[in-house]
Specification:
single chain, alpha/beta, Arginase, Chain A, eight-stranded parallel sheet, 8 strands, globular
Length: 307
């Protein structure tokens, strides 16, 4: 039995298209807590958090959007992660991917306090390894990996308490990486698994190899699941749609393998924009994927009607 701690993070400042602030309550409406308790786990819902009230100087890059609010969220969520992690499995309900600036840095600090290696699985169409200095859009939801691995250019942000080793990050499902991010990835040991590699080798092989490394290190694994990891045909409720994403079955296989591995210690559910959804089907799919992570199997998956 796992004690799951739901932490609402209605972060909507990481990009300019609004709507992700409705994400946490959409997961609740879609029955996330009920799906978890049906599997025999316990649930504690901390409600929706608010960002710390901070003011930081403008960034040298004039394109940067909502810097002070993003820094405030980073502080709030890093603290929330460190407070919740000793008591159970934190599940951060987003909110856009800028929330991971706080959730990942907080969970890495927790792992360091426990004396265990920290790993991250990035399920996303994008690598999110920009910095505020390199981002041409200025949308900070594209920067969390850059922040937690200690890249320069994060003026105004709190120092990262426990930098994440790039070699301990697996990016699964990439299919939209710009030139600056590509160049950065070439200079580090991130395990990059793009959709071509998945097409050629399947999704199981690279994930199994990564999970074996986590197990051998007795690592703590944070999973950051972005709606755009999935193909927009099955998960339309995201403002950053990129065709050619993971299928429903591939998504469930990933989650089932994570459940079998037993090493997941925290989870992000990010970039759900209910304003763009089709009768709640994306929220329901994300809830189903979470249930697979927590032990639901193929034969006991409920039949859903979207009519």
């Amino acid at each position: 039995m796992t004690h799951c701690i739901l932490i609402g993070a209605p972060v909507d400042c990481g990009k300019r298209r609004r709507g992700c602030l409705m994400g946490p309550d959409s997961y609740r409406t879609a029955g996330l807590a009920e799906a978890i308790t049906t599997l025999g786990h316990t649930v504690e819902d901390l409600g929706n958090l608010s960002p710390a009230d901070v003011t930081v100087p403008d960034h040298p890059n004039p394109a940067v959007h909502a810097l002070s609010e993003t820094v405030g969220w980073t502080r709030t969520l890093a603290q929330a992660a460190q407070e919740a992690a000793p008591r159970g499995l934190p599940i951060f309900l987003g909110g856009d991917h800028a929330l991971a600036l706080g959730t990942v840095s907080g969970m890495a600090a927790h792992a360091k306090a426990q004396g265990r290696p920290f790993f991250a699985l990035w399920l996303d169409a994008h690598s999110d390894i920009h910095t505020p200095a390199t981002s041409t859009s200025g949308n900070l939801h594209g920067t969390p990996v850059g922040y937690v691995i200690g890249r320069d250019g994060f003026e105004g942000f709190p120092p990262v308490p426990a930098q994440v080793d790039p070699a301990n990050i697996c990016m699964l499902g990439l299919r939209s990486v710009d030139g600056a991010e590509h160049a950065a990835l070439l200079d580090m040991d991130v395990d990059v698994v793009d959709m071509r590699r998945i097409d050629e080798d399947g999704i199981r092989t690279p994930l199994a190899a990564f999970l074996q490394r986590v197990a051998e290190a007795d690592g703590m694994l944070h999973v950051s699941l972005d709606v755009d990891f999935l193909d927009p045909a099955v998960a339309p409720a995201v403002g950053t749609t990129v065709p050619g994403g993971a299928t429903v079955r591939e998504g469930h296989l990933v989650m089932e393998m994570l459940c079998d591995a037993g090493c997941v210690t925290s989870l992000d559910l990010v970039e759900l924009n209910p304003f763009l959804d089709d009768r709640g089907k994306t929220a329901s799919l994300m809830v189903d994927l979470t249930a697979s992570l927590l032990g639901r199997r193929v034969f006991d998956r409920p039949t859903r009607s979207h009519g």
